[in-house]
Amino acid sequence: MTDYDVVDVPLQRLDPDLPVPRYAHPGDAGADLCARHDVEIGPGERAVVPTGVAIALPEGWAAFVHPRSGLAARHGVTVVNAPGTVDAGFRGEIQVILLNTDLRQPVRLLRGDRIAQLVVQRVAQARFTEVEDLSESVRGAGGLGSTGGWEATGAAAGGTN
Q1: In DSSP terms, which residues pair with 96 in a beta bridge?
Q2: How far apart are the C-alpha atoms of 117 and 100, rounded to whole Å?
Q3: CA 71 to each of CA 98, 101, 156, 160: distance values in angstroms, whole numbers, following the listed order
Q4: pLDDT in tens, 31-75
Q5: Domain-embedded: residue 8
């Protein structure tokens, strides 16, 4: 790994018994975040789950909280505002807003369970310049299903995007 692959992120452990975020495998994009407390999330309900860590990202960087695929596949648990954004100026405890999408079964998460992944990325700030017209592009103003997708499979017989 070269120097440009790594950013130093000061971390404050708010709960000394929980592990700091860590990557499960070399090359992983997301570092695991753990639950600070036991929580039960009822069917269709959400919960804000603290992680026991706070970070100080340098300017020009942000961290994004992503769902864990195993929790999603096995239990229907996702991050409501995925990805959640941790800005460089934020110094509070990272908390994860989890949603149990299963409409029948509650999900019980225990203290120390891996509940989300934290992806740290370089970000740029935009300088917005108001103009009368935007330049042309191949896509134009097409959006919200304008390229087809599920409609092509016949799932929406007669429907429109």
Answers
A1: 49
A2: 17
A3: 10, 11, 30, 33
A4: 999 999 999 999 999 999 999 999 999 999 999 999 999 999 999
A5: yes
Continuous segment of H or E residues that includes residue 86 = strand 84-86
Between CA 113 and CA 139 the distance in angstroms is 43
Tell whether 138 is covered by a domain.
no
Omega of the bond prior to 83 within 30 degrees of 0, cis? yes
Residues 93-146 have pLDDT tens digits of: 999 999 999 999 999 999 999 999 999 999 999 999 999 999 999 888 888 777
Decide if 24 contacts 32 (C-beta within 8 A): yes
CATH number at residue 102: 2.70.40.10
CA distance 54 to 139: 41
- Positive or negative: CA dihedral 10, 13, 17, 18: negative
| Domain annotation covers residue 142 | no
Query: Which residue range forms the structural domain that includes residue 111?
Result: 3-124
Residue 76, both tokens: 């229907």
| Predicted TM-score (pTM) of this structure | 0.84
